[in-house]
Amino acid sequence: MRNFKLTIEYNGANFSGWQKQDGKRTVQGQIEEALKTVTGEDVTLNGSGRTDKGVHALGQVASVILESPITVEGLKRALNNILPEDVFVKKVEVADDNFHARFSAKRKTYQYVVQVGGDRSAVKNTTLTYFPYAVDLKKMEDAAALLIGKHNFKGFCSSGTTVKDFEREIFALSIKKRGRIFTFEVTGNGFLYNMVRIIVGTLLDVGREKLSLQDVKDALELGKRECAGQTMAACGLYLKKVEYLSEPN
Amino acid sequence: MRNFKLTIEYNGANFSGWQKQDGKRTVQGQIEEALKTVTGEDVTLNGSGRTDKGVHALGQVASVILESPITVEGLKRALNNILPEDVFVKKVEVADDNFHARFSAKRKTYQYVVQVGGDRSAVKNTTLTYFPYAVDLKKMEDAAALLIGKHNFKGFCSSGTTVKDFEREIFALSIKKRGRIFTFEVTGNGFLYNMVRIIVGTLLDVGREKLSLQDVKDALELGKRECAGQTMAACGLYLKKVEYLSEPN
Known about the structure:
The first copy, chain A, contains 5 helices and 10 strands, in the order βαββαβββαβββααβ. The first copy, chain A, is an alpha+beta fold. In chain A, helix 1 packs across helix 2 (72-82) and helix 3 (137-147) packs parallel to helix 5 (213-222).
């Protein structure tokens, strides 16, 4: 019996998110089915966290306990032969017995990709988000600096969450511009529901001068959702990387 | 009554191709429906040619005759407000009365995007094709050179076509490599059914040394489909540009 760690890429456009749900096409559901075909075992695959409908992953991590004597390379090949084209297992490793993709996670990095202005891209409609207004990069960077560190992020969280503790730490938050494409990258010890999408919406609203730096401070200090910006669409969001203790990077 | 020329981008992943078919989601069908909503007119939109299910366009051209007094900018804006996110009208122009997107076309340019080797990209599964074998760029360029010019392309055409004349002229055929991504670009006066996808499959098969330059010559001179390479998948193919007489570019 071994504990496996899987690193997974997927395009979220045609999935009802990560988490298994009856009658829905989900990433967890597809991989559990493929694991059953390969090993004959009915297992639960534990993801580092859910991703919503439409959200992509470049490096989602999941753990699963298997009885099968299959090699890591054999498991990777067999899964990818079965899995549909919008999901791919990039890496299979044998982990410590006490490794759990969710509970052992220390840092997560998300990317958010936005096209600012110009003609909406029909070809990339499921892999980036379109923002029709001109934005000021410097203003967005100033607002981003306010969010780095340990804060109460209640103002950057959608309602409907059962979470009680809203304190999270953001280690890094950068914005790269390449022509009309802006890529936001944020690394933290954990994220509240819709937190990345609200952070990016807030920074863009500061960039177009719909919100001020003071509004961002208010959202942080007063914990009021209405002080922060809009929740951006799922299609621009990528779970890039999940890091665990004693991993260099 | 004016004759309009539309330049259109779309992601083919969720369309049953360009051409209108009962009960199917098609690009022509979606745009004709949007035209009806905007102008109240039941019209036929004539594309420069069909694209198959899964094939994308960066610059498909279509023409349509409308009674409505709407401005070109007004028509562009109104259509894009209605159209779904995987289709976008990039340009609306008033054309000469005798302009017809199909019959007036002089040159078409297609792009084909392939990832060669490495891990299959799940995120880009509908916007490029994966080719698992290593290829030699120089060999592919030598084979490409054989195809440029006026030839009988019967060997590069899928069966099931009703075409009688297989002569076509290829003006340019280039291959750009950027890391693992190879972009094939081909310009010609017209293309037979699946011709671009078979040309790219043939070049890749030469690149991996499954076919020789002599096989390519045989496919051209003997007109035998079995001498040419495989038909590549639809998802890597983009109709990039359609050119008409007296257009500089």
